[in-house]
């Protein structure tokens, strides 16, 4: 029992209400919400060192879990205030809508590298006050939703999808207690999978180390 679909079927045998994303998510925006591209160019300057006021969080940073510190980009205080709609100061989700469509990142302020952050370009910031954001993460990564998302993704050139079409997609919204149970089960499964993966890598390391015997003869056998 390790998918949203299976858990919904078990916990809600009589069916689940379908809601449009725009009806349950209070904030759906992106980097360009602050104004036109020209205005953004005038108000947002990138700084490629850590003297900036806030970090520009890109999906590449989220994907690497902030491991590539030398490639971080920052913005000054003016740009941070200009991009107030996409300040990542609350729990929510980030989805690339240009390139790497289908990826979903769950974030909380304490999970980010810097104290102050704004979302970088080509991504959507999604959060809800009425639905568990962690439940939304599991829902958005489910096979059912990914199939729906793929239908609005343009395959021409660099993959992308329209935010208006995204807002219209429907998702299953069970009662809050069911959402919490689904999150509990799937988060536990995710932790178990991560632990097993780590143990497998540890085993492979020790196996390869302990079985890599030096050549006693000092040369290769004929």
Which tags fit this structure?
single chain, 222 residues, alpha+beta, three-stranded mixed sheet, 39% helix, globular
How would you describe this structure to a colleague?
The longest helix is centred in the C-terminal third of the chain and has 35 residues, at 176-210. The model has no long low-confidence stretch (mean pLDDT 86). With 222 residues, this protein is of the alpha+beta class. Helices cover 39% and strands 16% of the residues. The chain starts with a helix and ends in a 12-residue tail after the last helix. The strands form 4 sheets. A 4-stranded antiparallel beta sheet has the order 2-8-5-6. Strands 4-3-7 form a 3-stranded mixed beta sheet. It is built from 9 helices and 11 strands. The chain is globular, with a radius of gyration of 22 Å. Strand 9 (153-154) and strand 10 form a beta hairpin.
Summarize the structure in short.
The chain is α+β, with helices and mostly antiparallel strands.
Unreliable spans are none
The succession of helices and strands, N to C, reads HEHEHEHEHEEEEHHEEHEH
Give the CA-CA distance, first to last residue.
Answer: 54 Å
Shape summary: globular
Give the count of helical stretches: 9
Helix content: 25-40%
- Strands of the biggest beta sheet: in what spatial order? 2-8-5-6
| Major sheet | 4 strands, antiparallel
Strand-residue proportion: 15-25%
Number of DSSP-assigned strands: 11
Q: Over the alpha carbons, how many angstroms does the gyration radius reach? A: 22 Å
What is the arithmetic mean of pLDDT?
86
| Structural class estimated from helices and strands | alpha+beta
